[in-house]
Amino acid sequence: MGISFVFLIGLTFTMLYFIYKYNRKKNPVATQIEGSTKLEIIWTVIPTLLVLVMFYYGWAGWVPMRNAPKDSFNIQVTGRMWNYTFQYENGKTTDTLFVPMNKAVKLKLISMDVIHGFYIPAFRIKEDVVPGREKSAWFIAQQEGLFELFCSEYCGLDHSYMYTYVKAMPEQKFNAWYVDTTKHVDAAVVDSPTANGKRIMKNIGCFACHTVDGNKLVGPSFKGIYGHKVTVTTGGNDREVTVDDEYIKKSIYDPNADIVKGYNKGLMQPYVGQLSEDDIKQITEYLKTLK
């Protein structure tokens, strides 16, 4: 800021002086002023050296900040249209980012579809999440509370709704939450397979592209889909299939194998490695209820 003010004030007064000295009244006839090689070198070399000095100190401060401490608490962040999910090392999955206070938290950032922007304004963190490329960020929450988390990169239809929260808790309180394996997404205890299926679908972003009321969105509606016959395109050929347990499983693990007629290929990414067969069974139970 000091250098900026020096240049701002210096250049402003220089411009005002030139306006006064070379105005039309003092110079009714324009005169040719020869340049100065010495002056050109001075005002090129000095700013260049200043910029390099500032770059050195900025780089020296930035590089260590990119490397998370070795004892960081690791969390995987998965971005997809249009939500974030957070997976912890003990298998717990949430749609709100829970973190301990005063401890380094390292985030492994993954995108399932398009570029998203992982942005926590309160912690001054912003990192693009790029499909096919693993990135990372880290921070230390020094204050207890609930902080907003956004997607800062336009990612499609419901980009503006892609937001959630970071909940920073005292370490003792966080540890109690972390070891309680009965509380998964949003710390909600759900015993019903149907309710669990709905919860899983909500937290992997299914309802961003599919409706439950019969309306068409990015993908087919889930209303009355189970047991219903649909026309799909497989390998360039149309065929009729019945939506059953196996079809649902295949549609989740290999969504581009059978494309429902009237919809586009490549919009849904496979969930192999993200959803277990038990997760899919619970999703299927929920779909059966959407008559």
TrEMBL record:
Membrane topology, record value: Multi-pass membrane protein
Residue span, Cytochrome c domain: 192-291
Subcellular location: Cell membrane; Membrane
Keyword terms of this UniProt record: Copper, Electron transport, Heme, Iron, Membrane, Metal-binding, Respiratory chain, Translocase, Transmembrane, Transmembrane helix, Transport
Catalytic class of the enzyme: translocase
Pfam families: COX2 (PF00116), COX2_TM (PF02790), Cytochrom_C (PF00034)
Catalytic activity of the protein: 4 Fe(II)-[cytochrome c] + O2 + 8 H(+)(in) = 4 Fe(III)-[cytochrome c] + 2 H2O + 4 H(+)(out)
Cofactor note: Binds a copper A center.
GO terms classed as biological process: ATP synthesis coupled electron transport
GO MF annotation: an example: cytochrome-c oxidase activity
Transmembrane residue ranges: 6-22, 42-62
Enzyme Commission identifier(s): 7.1.1.9
Cofactor(s) listed in the protein's UniProt record: Cu cation
Residues of the Cytochrome oxidase subunit II copper A binding domain: 70-180
CC per GO annotation: plasma membrane
Span of domain Cytochrome oxidase subunit II transmembrane region profile: 1-69
Job description of the protein: Subunits I and II form the functional core of the enzyme complex. Electrons originating in cytochrome c are transferred via heme a and Cu(A) to the binuclear center formed by heme a3 and Cu(B).
Family membership: Belongs to the cytochrome c oxidase subunit 2 family.
Record-given protein name: Cytochrome c oxidase subunit 2
Source organism of this protein record: Aquipluma nitroreducens
Lineage of the organism: Bacteria, Pseudomonadati, Bacteroidota, Bacteroidia, Marinilabiliales
